[in-house]
Amino acid sequence: MELSKKQFKYFIDNEPNFVCTLEKQRCSCMKPDGNRCRRKVVIGLEFCFQHLALKRHLKIKKSTIPNSGMGVFAIDSRLPSDDTKTILFHGERNKKRGTGDFITNYNGETISNTEMEDRYHDFTAPYACRINPRESVDAACSRGLGSMINSTTSYSAANCEFVQKWHISPSVCTSEPRRIFEMEKNSKYGMERTISFMKMAFGSLPDKIIKLLSVYLDF
Ligand SMILES: [Zn+2]
């Protein structure tokens, strides 16, 4: 793992209680010539800005939500910037499965409740998401794209759902949790992806589902 120069610091009583250096990764996109992209990414792992736009139709830029820093937006560079009609993400494209379009994984560091308490005490962890009664995923040091999706207090304005899926790998018979965001509503060019922490959903995959756990968003 490579480290960047950026640090995350969490202060309690004006003292840095938890400090880490942000992880840096090489963009995971394979180019048409078969070579892997050489750009390095710190915020929004795992794609560089160019491949995030090309492959995922997403862009990180200043949020429309006050005091929220950066946010995640829908983008398609082939469309004119004033396009307000083209739908880039569909909320109910696959009606059979009852799911919307995949947005991104919620990547980060899986940590125990004890570690969470050491880092943040009883305060709200800015980049963490509880995945079961014992563990959370903290993206403070490994800043995945999912952690950049801002929450909104407006129930009706949220357009993403946080979905936890479990599926079994047939070859090794082990369970692998996938924590992802899916579209809830159709989303057009330029729209920011937002989630309401009041909205928590559980999805299903065609794979065998072994367990669904409560998901508590803790942005
Ligand atoms: Zn790239």
Commentary on this structure:
- The protein has 219 residues and is mainly β.
- It has a single domain (2-218), classed as Beta-clip-like, CATH 2.170.270.
- The chain is 7% helix and 38% strand.
- The chain has 2 helices and 16 strands.
- It has helices at 49-56, 113-120, and strands at 2-12, 15-26, 40-41, 58-62, 70-74, 87-89, 102-105, 109-112, 128-130, 135-138, 150-152, 160-168, 175-183, 187-188, 192-196, 216-218.
- It has a 4-stranded mixed β-sheet with strand order 4-5-15-11.
- A hairpin with a 7-residue loop joins strand 4 and strand 5 (70-74).
- The chain is globular.
- The two termini are 25 Å apart.
- The model is unreliable at 167-178 and 196-219 (pLDDT under 50).
- Bound molecules: zinc ion (ZN).
Task: Tell me briefly what this model is.
Helix content is 7%, strand content 38%. The chain has helices spanning 49-56, 113-120; strands at 2-12, 15-26, 40-41, 58-62, 70-74, 87-89, 102-105, 109-112, 128-130, 135-138, 150-152, 160-168, 175-183, 187-188, 192-196, 216-218. The strands form five sheets. It has a four-stranded mixed β-sheet. The chain has a four-stranded antiparallel β-sheet with strand order 8-10-9-16. A three-stranded antiparallel β-sheet has the order 1-2-3, covered by helices on one side.
